C-alpha cells in the first residue's frame, strides 16, 4: 500500500509522525474517541497494531517490548478510565526506566464542558506515571506534539510520555503548513565525572571485602557484568545487583550476579558488614515495606555510599571508566562455565521446579520472572549458567506484570522463546494477555505456580506480626473454594494447556512447549 503524501486528518499525521520517529508497534485498547486513530492505523500499515483486551495488558506489553527491543512502543488507550486501567503496569515500567509512549484519546474539546460520563481528570491521572505530558489541541499541533512525546521517552534511561489526543484533533484536517515538524533534540549524554570515578575506586580499595559494587539498569548486560566482576576481583570487593532488575544478560561466560533478597531478614543479612557501597545504575537498597522494629534502609549505619554517575551520564559509560582507571577489562573477569543441573524427579517443590526449568531452558530464552514466592531465588540461581538467556524482573512491585511483559517481549523478539514464570494470584490480574498471545502466535511458555494462595501475603502476615489469622483473614490470603483451573482458563483464551504435578512431568511439558510453535500454558500443581 502506497503511503499518502500528506495527512488527511490529525490522526493520519499522528501515525506518520510515529513512523518517522521509529515507533512502529502499538498495543491498543481503543474506544469511541479513538476511532479516527484506528482508521489511521489501518491506512498506514507500517505500524503494527496489537489488540489487548485490558489496558493493563497493553501497558505491560509495551514495557516488555521496550525492554527487549531498546525502543519505545506506543499504547492506544481510551480516555481517563482506560489510562487508569493501565496505570499499574505503567508504574512498573517507570520504575524499570522503560521508554513507553501512551496515546490517550479524549473527548472533543468542545464536548468537555458537558461533563459526559467518561469525562475525568485525565491529566491528573497521567501525571502519576508520566515524565512528560502533553495535549494536541488541534490537528495542527499533532506532528510537533508527537515528536516531543517520542523524544521525551528517550530522555535519560527511559521515560514514560503521555500524549492526550482529543477526538476533534484526530478527525480534523491539518493545514498544509502543519504537516511536517522537526523532531526535538534528545538531550546529549553527559561525560563521565573523572573525580567521582577516582573517588569510587579509592572507596572500594580502602574497604576491600567490606565494600560492595552494586549494579543496575544498563550495566547488567554481558559487557557490564564482566567489567564489574573484573573490578571486584581487582579490588577484592563484593559485586551485587538490585533485588529486581529490568533486564539482565546471563549464561556461560557471564559471571554470577548475586541479588539482594526480597525478604527483609535475608536482605539485612545480605548487606551485613558492607561498609562502603558504590552504586552504578542502582539506587541505595531499601526494604520493600516497613516492618515493625526493622529498618527501612538496608545499608548499615556508617556505611559510605557513593554514586559516581551524575545525572545525564550513562551508567555503563561510568562503569567502563572505572574499569579503565583500574586498568582491568572483561578478560580479567572470573570464568563462568556452562552448567546444567540433572533433570529432577519427585514431587514439585521450590527446588525441583527450579531444577526442571534450569535443566530444560533453551539457549537464548527470555525469562520473565513473576514467580513471586515459589521461584524467587531458587530458579534464578539454578539457571545462572545453563545457556545464554535474558532475565526480566518486576521492578515496580505491582503484580499482574508477568503475562503482559512476556507478550511484549515475544513481539519484540519473535525468534526467541519466552518463558513466563507466574504465580497463580498474579496471573489473575492480567490473564487476558493469554488471548493476545494466541491471536499473535507468540512463542511464549507460561508456567503457573498453582499453590491456590497468595503465599507471599501469608509470609508478609507473619513478617508484619499481625497475630493469629482467623477464618476471615485466611480467606483473604487464599485462592480456594473453588480452586482455579488454569488449564480451562488458558484453553478458554485459545492457549493449549496441561497440568503437571511432579518434576518429571514438568520437564516433559516444558520440552514439548519449546518444540511447538505458539503459546502454551503449564499449570504446575504445588501442595
UniProtKB/TrEMBL annotation:
Domain Thiamine pyrophosphate enzyme TPP-binding: 386-523
The entry's keywords: Thiamine pyrophosphate
One GO-annotated biological process of the protein: small molecule metabolic process
A Gene Ontology molecular function term of the record: magnesium ion binding
Keyword Transmembrane listed: no
Domain Thiamine pyrophosphate enzyme N-terminal TPP-binding: 9-113
Family: Belongs to the TPP enzyme family.
Protein name: Acetolactate synthase large subunit
Organism expressing this protein natively: Xylophilus rhododendri
Lineage start: Bacteria, Pseudomonadati, Pseudomonadota, Betaproteobacteria, Burkholderiales
